[in-house]
Design a protein that fits this description.
The chain has 379 residues and is an alpha+beta fold. The chain has 2 domains: 2-171 and 285-370, Zn peptidases (Aminopeptidase); 173-283, Alpha-Beta Plaits, CATH 3.30.70.360. The chain is built from 10 helices and 18 strands. The chain has helices spanning 2-9, 82-85, 103-119, 148-151, 198-207, 249-269, 287-290, 294-306, 321-327, 351-370, and strands at 12-16, 22-26, 36-41, 56-58, 66-67, 75-76, 92-94, 129-134, 155-159, 166-168, 173-182, 225-233, 237-246, 274-283, 312-314, 334-335, 339-340, 348-350. An 8-stranded mixed sheet has the order 1-2-8-3-9-16-10-15, with helices on one face. Strands 4-7-18-17 form a 4-stranded antiparallel sheet. Strand 17 and strand 18 (348-350) form a beta hairpin. It is globular, with a radius of gyration of 23 Å.
């Protein structure tokens, strides 16, 4: 659908790859201008149901609590949500409370589509732009089948942030750890002295984590965490997945050492079980790469100001496709979309702030076409 719409808008080089990426080019009108990448992801989080979304638009929201009709337990209460309380009068979009809304990152997709559709009919100076819609971002694999050459840009921006005016220039560095436990399965009626219950060992592993720090529930800002995300299995075998995050690489390594130590302790305590640990890097802190390209961040600041908003620098307690692309040499800060409460059925978005994000994209593409700016080529 996106590929067809980009073709109808008039973009060129529209490609739908075998891995589900959509790429297209908006030609520029200024010779020699750098190519601007515009990136968003079409997948949604596995943390809550994402199919069968029934979006609801609450027009000119008056400030009262919003009860989501699909699940009466889900109420957006401005008394508990300061970001929501600040949006009185906005048109808000929610789901019905039984699924994600999917603003992460369908809002970014919509904003890029709106921006390039507008720019394609506008004859004012602009840089060329490369539109890139990715998949599997939510599981840290959004660029597994995408490289800088395919993106075809000199610099880029992901539309995958949140509140109005935000520019995210620093992310977590991230690993996934998977612990596989093979126990000994025996009929429970004759299990004495013989059974090794993998489910109990998995539970013990999770229970051994620090209770009051190193958890998403108790950390903020640049503080990292070790977060168990999933347990599957039965008495004979089980697996536990963790995500391990920090902004500081030395602390990140300490968190990984904690996981390794817990696994070693489990092996010692129950030598009859086989306990395997797999650690996979997902992305690195993009701040290091962006430090080398202040002009890319400065352009985002100016574009946001052009739409009447003051830019706000924030950090990501997570990651984006931009973090992985930045590590490959393509400077890619992350911009706001107007969505909030991502990864939950209480997710919501402001239509007015989505419009501001789309306008910011328009101004970015114009800005890079207006002036002589030196951009270091991707390494």
């Amino acid at each position: 659908m996106l590929a067809e719409e980009l073709t109808q808008i008039g973009l060129s080089d529209v490609v739908l790859t075998e891995h589900g990426y959509v790429l297209a080019t908006l030609p520029g009108t200024v010779a020699g201008a750098p190519v601007v990448g515009l990136i968003a992801h079409v997948d949604t989080s596995p943390d809550a149901p994402g199919g069968g979304v029934a979006p609801i638009v609450h027009r000119a929201w008056a400030g009262d609590p919003i009860a989501l009709p699909g699940d009466e337990r889900q109420v957006l209460d401005p008394a508990q949500l300061p970001e929501l309380a600040e949006r009185v009068g906005h048109d808000l979009v929610t789901s019905d409370g039984t699924t994600l809304l999917g603003a992460d990152d369908k809002a970014g997709v919509a904003e890029i589509m709106a921006a390039v559709a507008y720019l394609a009919t506008d004859d004012r100076p602009r840089a060329p732009a490369r539109v890139v819609f990715t998949v599997d971002e939510e599981v840290g694999r959004g660029t597994d089948h995408l490289d800088v050459e395919q993106v075809g840009a000199d610099l880029a921006y992901t539309l995958d942030g949140s509140g109005l005016g935000e520019i995210e220039v620093e992310s977590f560095s991230a690993y996934q750890a998977k612990v596989t436990i093979t126990g000994v399965g025996v009929h429970p009626g004759s299990a004495k002295g013989r059974m090794v219950n993998a489910v109990k060992l998995a539970a013990d592993l999770v229970a051994a984590l620090p209770q009051y720090d190193l958890s998403p529930e108790t950390t903020e800002n640049r503080e990292g965490f070790v977060h168990p995300t999933r347990i599957v299995g039965h008495a004979a075998d089980a697996a536990v997945w963790f995500i391990v995050r920090d902004h500081d690489d030395a602390r990140l390594e300490q968190h990984l050492d904690l996981v390794r130590g817990l696994v070693d302790a489990l092996r010692v305590r129950e030598p009859r079980a086989q306990v395997e640990l797999e650690i996979q890097e997902q992305y690195r802190n993009m701040g290091r790469a962006l430090d080398d390209h202040p002009e890319v961040v400065a352009a985002a600041e100016e574009a946001i100001r052009r739409v009447g908003v003051e830019p706000v620098h924030t950090i990501i307690r997570g990651g984006t496709d931009g973090a992985r692309l930045a590590a490959l040499g393509l400077p890619t800060p992350n911009l706001f979309t107007g969505g909030q409460l991502y990864h939950s059925v209480r997710e919501w978005a402001s239509v007015q702030e989505m419009a501001a994000a789309a306008a910011t994209v328009v101004e970015l593409v114009r800005l890079w076409g207006e002036r002589e700016v030196s951009v270091t080529a991707p390494r």
